Predict the structure.
Amino acid sequence: MISFEDFISVDGIPIYLQILRHIKRGVVAGAIQNGDELPSRRVLSALLGINPNTIQKAYKALEDEGLIESRAGAKSYMSLDVDKTEKIRIQLLENDVGSIVSSLKQMGLSKEDAVSLIEKHWEN
Amino acid sequence: MISFEDFISVDGIPIYLQILRHIKRGVVAGAIQNGDELPSRRVLSALLGINPNTIQKAYKALEDEGLIESRAGAKSYMSLDVDKTEKIRIQLLENDVGSIVSSLKQMGLSKEDAVSLIEKHWEN
DNA sequence: ACAACTGTACTATGTGTATAATACAGTTAA
DNA sequence: TTAACTGTATTATACACATAGTACAGTTGT
Protein backbone atom coordinates (compact mmCIF):
# COMPACT_ATOMS: atom_id res chain seq x y z
CA MET A 1 0.00 0.00 0.00
CA ILE A 2 1.39 3.38 -1.05
CA SER A 3 2.13 5.59 1.93
CA PHE A 4 0.98 9.19 2.34
CA GLU A 5 2.24 9.58 5.90
CA ASP A 6 4.79 12.21 4.93
CA PHE A 7 2.43 14.12 2.65
CA ILE A 8 2.17 17.78 3.62
CA SER A 9 -0.05 20.11 1.63
CA VAL A 10 1.39 23.50 0.69
CA ASP A 11 -0.90 26.36 -0.24
CA GLY A 12 -0.55 28.15 -3.54
CA ILE A 13 -0.27 24.94 -5.55
CA PRO A 14 -3.43 22.95 -6.39
CA ILE A 15 -3.81 20.00 -4.01
CA TYR A 16 -4.51 17.49 -6.78
CA LEU A 17 -1.20 18.46 -8.43
CA GLN A 18 0.63 18.04 -5.14
CA ILE A 19 -0.76 14.51 -4.85
CA LEU A 20 0.39 13.83 -8.41
CA ARG A 21 3.87 15.10 -7.59
CA HIS A 22 4.05 13.15 -4.33
CA ILE A 23 3.37 9.90 -6.13
CA LYS A 24 5.74 10.66 -9.00
CA ARG A 25 8.56 11.42 -6.58
CA GLY A 26 7.88 8.16 -4.81
CA VAL A 27 8.18 6.38 -8.15
CA VAL A 28 11.50 8.07 -8.91
CA ALA A 29 12.78 7.20 -5.44
CA GLY A 30 11.78 3.56 -5.91
CA ALA A 31 9.40 3.64 -2.95
CA ILE A 32 6.44 3.14 -5.29
CA GLN A 33 6.58 0.26 -7.76
CA ASN A 34 4.52 -1.41 -10.47
CA GLY A 35 1.47 -3.19 -9.10
CA ASP A 36 1.45 -1.32 -5.80
CA GLU A 37 -2.03 -0.79 -4.38
CA LEU A 38 -3.30 2.76 -3.94
CA PRO A 39 -5.52 3.78 -1.03
CA SER A 40 -9.15 4.16 -2.13
CA ARG A 41 -10.44 7.66 -2.92
CA ARG A 42 -12.53 7.73 0.23
CA VAL A 43 -9.80 6.40 2.51
CA LEU A 44 -7.16 8.83 1.24
CA SER A 45 -9.71 11.63 1.47
CA ALA A 46 -10.23 10.88 5.16
CA LEU A 47 -6.52 10.36 5.80
CA LEU A 48 -5.48 13.70 4.30
CA GLY A 49 -8.60 15.65 5.25
CA ILE A 50 -9.21 16.47 1.60
CA ASN A 51 -12.44 16.29 -0.36
CA PRO A 52 -12.99 12.97 -2.20
CA ASN A 53 -13.54 14.83 -5.46
CA THR A 54 -10.08 16.36 -5.18
CA ILE A 55 -8.54 12.92 -4.69
CA GLN A 56 -10.52 11.67 -7.66
CA LYS A 57 -9.17 14.53 -9.76
CA ALA A 58 -5.61 13.51 -8.87
CA TYR A 59 -6.25 9.82 -9.54
CA LYS A 60 -7.99 10.69 -12.83
CA ALA A 61 -4.91 12.66 -13.90
CA LEU A 62 -2.68 9.71 -13.00
CA GLU A 63 -4.95 7.44 -15.02
CA ASP A 64 -4.83 9.84 -17.99
CA GLU A 65 -1.02 9.66 -17.84
CA GLY A 66 -1.17 5.87 -17.81
CA LEU A 67 0.44 5.58 -14.39
CA ILE A 68 -2.43 3.81 -12.62
CA GLU A 69 -5.19 1.42 -13.60
CA SER A 70 -8.69 1.57 -12.15
CA ARG A 71 -11.78 -0.63 -12.58
CA ALA A 72 -15.18 0.36 -11.22
CA GLY A 73 -15.69 -1.40 -7.89
CA ALA A 74 -12.11 -2.59 -7.50
CA LYS A 75 -8.95 -1.10 -6.03
CA SER A 76 -6.57 1.00 -8.11
CA TYR A 77 -3.01 -0.14 -8.82
CA MET A 78 0.17 1.43 -10.11
CA SER A 79 0.96 0.67 -13.75
CA LEU A 80 4.69 1.26 -14.24
CA ASP A 81 7.58 0.11 -16.36
CA VAL A 82 11.17 1.19 -16.92
CA ASP A 83 10.30 3.68 -19.66
CA LYS A 84 7.52 5.40 -17.71
CA THR A 85 9.68 5.63 -14.60
CA GLU A 86 12.61 7.11 -16.52
CA LYS A 87 10.35 9.67 -18.20
CA ILE A 88 9.01 10.75 -14.81
CA ARG A 89 12.54 11.05 -13.41
CA ILE A 90 13.62 13.27 -16.29
CA GLN A 91 10.41 15.32 -16.11
CA LEU A 92 10.72 16.03 -12.39
CA LEU A 93 14.46 16.65 -12.29
CA GLU A 94 14.38 18.87 -15.37
CA ASN A 95 11.58 20.92 -13.86
CA ASP A 96 12.99 21.23 -10.34
CA VAL A 97 16.63 21.76 -11.19
CA GLY A 98 15.82 24.06 -14.08
CA SER A 99 13.70 26.33 -11.93
CA ILE A 100 16.19 26.59 -9.06
CA VAL A 101 19.05 27.37 -11.44
CA SER A 102 17.13 30.13 -13.20
CA SER A 103 16.04 31.49 -9.82
CA LEU A 104 19.51 31.72 -8.38
CA LYS A 105 20.93 33.09 -11.61
CA GLN A 106 18.29 35.84 -11.63
CA MET A 107 19.37 36.74 -8.11
CA GLY A 108 22.93 37.16 -9.27
CA LEU A 109 24.48 34.18 -7.51
CA SER A 110 27.56 32.43 -8.85
CA LYS A 111 27.66 28.68 -9.42
CA GLU A 112 29.88 28.33 -6.36
CA ASP A 113 27.45 30.31 -4.21
CA ALA A 114 24.58 28.14 -5.44
CA VAL A 115 26.35 24.87 -4.71
CA SER A 116 27.42 26.13 -1.31
CA LEU A 117 23.82 27.05 -0.46
CA ILE A 118 22.49 23.68 -1.55
CA GLU A 119 25.11 21.85 0.51
CA LYS A 120 24.40 23.98 3.57
CA HIS A 121 20.65 23.36 3.37
CA TRP A 122 21.03 19.65 2.71
CA GLU A 123 21.67 18.85 6.35
CA ASN A 124 18.48 20.49 7.68
CA MET B 1 13.31 52.48 -15.40
CA ILE B 2 12.91 48.90 -14.19
CA SER B 3 13.24 46.40 -17.02
CA PHE B 4 10.79 43.58 -17.77
CA GLU B 5 12.45 42.50 -21.00
CA ASP B 6 13.40 39.11 -19.63
CA PHE B 7 10.06 38.49 -17.94
CA ILE B 8 8.49 35.22 -19.06
CA SER B 9 5.17 34.13 -17.62
CA VAL B 10 4.83 30.51 -16.54
CA ASP B 11 1.43 28.91 -16.21
CA GLY B 12 0.34 27.33 -12.95
CA ILE B 13 1.53 30.23 -10.84
CA PRO B 14 -0.61 33.40 -10.58
CA ILE B 15 0.77 36.10 -12.88
CA TYR B 16 0.66 38.82 -10.24
CA LEU B 17 2.86 36.68 -7.98
CA GLN B 18 5.32 36.12 -10.82
CA ILE B 19 5.61 39.87 -11.26
CA LEU B 20 6.22 40.22 -7.52
CA ARG B 21 8.92 37.57 -7.68
CA HIS B 22 10.54 39.09 -10.77
CA ILE B 23 10.95 42.43 -9.03
CA LYS B 24 12.17 40.90 -5.77
CA ARG B 25 14.82 38.90 -7.60
CA GLY B 26 15.94 42.07 -9.35
CA VAL B 27 16.28 43.73 -5.97
CA VAL B 28 18.37 40.87 -4.60
CA ALA B 29 20.56 40.93 -7.73
CA GLY B 30 21.08 44.70 -7.33
CA ALA B 31 19.54 45.44 -10.71
CA ILE B 32 16.65 47.25 -9.02
CA GLN B 33 17.49 49.95 -6.48
CA ASN B 34 15.85 52.47 -4.19
CA GLY B 35 14.13 55.30 -6.08
CA ASP B 36 14.00 53.41 -9.38
CA GLU B 37 10.96 54.29 -11.48
CA LEU B 38 8.45 51.58 -12.29
CA PRO B 39 6.62 51.41 -15.62
CA SER B 40 3.04 52.61 -15.28
CA ARG B 41 0.29 50.01 -14.89
CA ARG B 42 -0.99 50.64 -18.40
CA VAL B 43 2.45 50.59 -20.03
CA LEU B 44 3.52 47.36 -18.34
CA SER B 45 0.12 45.86 -19.17
CA ALA B 46 0.72 46.55 -22.87
CA LEU B 47 4.35 45.44 -22.70
CA LEU B 48 3.58 42.05 -21.13
CA GLY B 49 0.18 41.54 -22.76
CA ILE B 50 -1.43 41.22 -19.36
CA ASN B 51 -4.60 42.86 -18.10
CA PRO B 52 -4.06 46.20 -16.29
CA ASN B 53 -5.97 44.91 -13.27
CA THR B 54 -3.50 42.08 -12.90
CA ILE B 55 -0.59 44.54 -12.96
CA GLN B 56 -2.41 46.66 -10.40
CA LYS B 57 -2.80 43.61 -8.16
CA ALA B 58 0.95 43.02 -8.29
CA TYR B 59 1.79 46.68 -7.64
CA LYS B 60 -0.74 46.79 -4.81
CA ALA B 61 0.93 43.79 -3.19
CA LEU B 62 4.33 45.50 -3.51
CA GLU B 63 2.86 48.61 -1.94
CA ASP B 64 1.38 46.54 0.92
CA GLU B 65 4.85 45.12 1.55
CA GLY B 66 6.32 48.63 1.61
CA LEU B 67 8.54 48.02 -1.41
CA ILE B 68 7.09 50.72 -3.67
CA GLU B 69 5.43 54.11 -3.17
CA SER B 70 2.54 55.34 -5.31
CA ARG B 71 0.62 58.63 -5.42
CA ALA B 72 -2.54 59.05 -7.49
CA GLY B 73 -1.61 60.67 -10.78
CA ALA B 74 2.14 60.27 -10.41
CA LYS B 75 4.61 57.53 -11.26
CA SER B 76 5.46 54.74 -8.79
CA TYR B 77 8.95 54.35 -7.36
CA MET B 78 10.86 51.67 -5.50
CA SER B 79 11.17 52.22 -1.76
CA LEU B 80 14.12 50.16 -0.56
CA ASP B 81 16.76 50.14 2.16
CA VAL B 82 19.37 47.68 3.39
CA ASP B 83 17.02 45.94 5.81
CA LYS B 84 14.23 45.41 3.28
CA THR B 85 16.66 44.13 0.68
CA GLU B 86 18.25 41.68 3.07
CA LYS B 87 14.85 40.39 4.20
CA ILE B 88 13.87 39.78 0.58
CA ARG B 89 17.16 37.97 -0.08
CA ILE B 90 16.60 35.65 2.87
CA GLN B 91 12.95 35.11 1.99
CA LEU B 92 13.66 34.15 -1.62
CA LEU B 93 16.73 32.01 -1.01
CA GLU B 94 15.11 30.18 1.91
CA ASN B 95 12.07 29.41 -0.20
CA ASP B 96 13.86 28.37 -3.39
CA VAL B 97 16.71 26.40 -1.88
CA GLY B 98 14.47 24.77 0.72
CA SER B 99 12.03 23.51 -1.91
CA ILE B 100 14.68 22.11 -4.25
CA VAL B 101 16.44 20.31 -1.42
CA SER B 102 13.24 18.68 -0.17
CA SER B 103 12.32 17.76 -3.75
CA LEU B 104 15.61 16.05 -4.53
CA LYS B 105 15.66 14.33 -1.14
CA GLN B 106 12.17 12.94 -1.77
CA MET B 107 13.43 11.52 -5.04
CA GLY B 108 16.18 9.70 -3.25
CA LEU B 109 19.15 11.70 -4.53
CA SER B 110 22.35 12.04 -2.51
CA LYS B 111 23.91 15.42 -1.78
CA GLU B 112 26.61 14.68 -4.33
CA ASP B 113 24.03 13.81 -7.02
CA ALA B 114 22.17 17.03 -6.26
CA VAL B 115 25.26 19.23 -6.48
CA SER B 116 26.34 17.49 -9.67
CA LEU B 117 22.93 18.13 -11.24
CA ILE B 118 22.96 21.80 -10.29
CA GLU B 119 26.45 22.25 -11.72
CA LYS B 120 25.53 20.51 -14.94
CA HIS B 121 22.42 22.64 -15.46
CA TRP B 122 24.21 25.87 -14.57
CA GLU B 123 25.83 26.16 -17.99
CA ASN B 124 22.57 25.97 -20.00
C1' DA C 1 -4.88 76.15 -19.12
C1' DC C 2 -4.73 71.92 -21.21
C1' DA C 3 -3.68 67.53 -23.12
C1' DA C 4 -1.76 63.36 -21.84
C1' DC C 5 -0.49 60.81 -18.76
C1' DT C 6 -0.92 58.75 -13.86
C1' DG C 7 -3.12 55.82 -9.85
C1' DT C 8 -7.41 54.03 -8.27
C1' DA C 9 -12.04 52.11 -8.19
C1' DC C 10 -15.98 49.59 -9.79
C1' DT C 11 -18.97 46.05 -12.22
C1' DA C 12 -19.28 41.99 -14.94
C1' DT C 13 -17.83 37.53 -17.02
C1' DG C 14 -15.26 33.17 -17.50
C1' DT C 15 -12.26 29.59 -15.74
C1' DG C 16 -9.99 26.52 -12.40
C1' DT C 17 -9.92 24.67 -7.83
C1' DA C 18 -12.05 22.81 -3.69
C1' DT C 19 -15.88 21.79 -1.14
C1' DA C 20 -20.51 19.27 0.05
C1' DA C 21 -24.05 16.07 -0.75
C1' DT C 22 -25.96 12.27 -3.40
C1' DA C 23 -26.44 8.54 -6.32
C1' DC C 24 -25.50 4.24 -8.86
C1' DA C 25 -23.20 0.24 -10.45
C1' DG C 26 -19.22 -3.05 -10.07
C1' DT C 27 -16.01 -5.94 -6.74
C1' DT C 28 -14.87 -8.53 -3.04
C1' DA C 29 -14.93 -11.14 1.16
C1' DA C 30 -17.49 -13.31 4.81
C1' DT D 1 -26.25 -13.97 -1.09
C1' DT D 2 -25.30 -9.98 1.02
C1' DA D 3 -23.00 -6.32 3.33
C1' DA D 4 -19.27 -3.35 2.80
C1' DC D 5 -16.37 -1.74 0.18
C1' DT D 6 -14.88 0.11 -4.60
C1' DG D 7 -14.82 3.60 -8.84
C1' DT D 8 -17.58 6.92 -11.18
C1' DA D 9 -20.89 10.59 -12.05
C1' DT D 10 -23.81 14.55 -11.06
C1' DT D 11 -25.35 19.05 -9.09
C1' DA D 12 -24.52 23.01 -6.30
C1' DT D 13 -21.78 26.51 -3.84
C1' DA D 14 -17.71 29.35 -2.87
C1' DC D 15 -13.39 31.41 -3.73
C1' DA D 16 -9.17 33.10 -6.35
C1' DC D 17 -7.45 34.53 -10.63
C1' DA D 18 -7.61 36.89 -15.05
C1' DT D 19 -10.01 39.37 -18.29
C1' DA D 20 -12.88 43.48 -20.31
C1' DG D 21 -14.79 47.84 -20.02
C1' DT D 22 -15.61 52.12 -17.84
C1' DA D 23 -14.99 55.96 -14.85
C1' DC D 24 -12.87 59.65 -12.02
C1' DA D 25 -9.51 62.41 -9.84
C1' DG D 26 -4.53 63.68 -9.30
C1' DT D 27 0.22 64.87 -11.72
C1' DT D 28 3.05 66.50 -15.07
C1' DG D 29 5.05 68.88 -19.10
C1' DT D 30 4.20 72.01 -22.68
About this structure: Residues 42 and 108 of chain A are 47 Å apart (CA to CA).
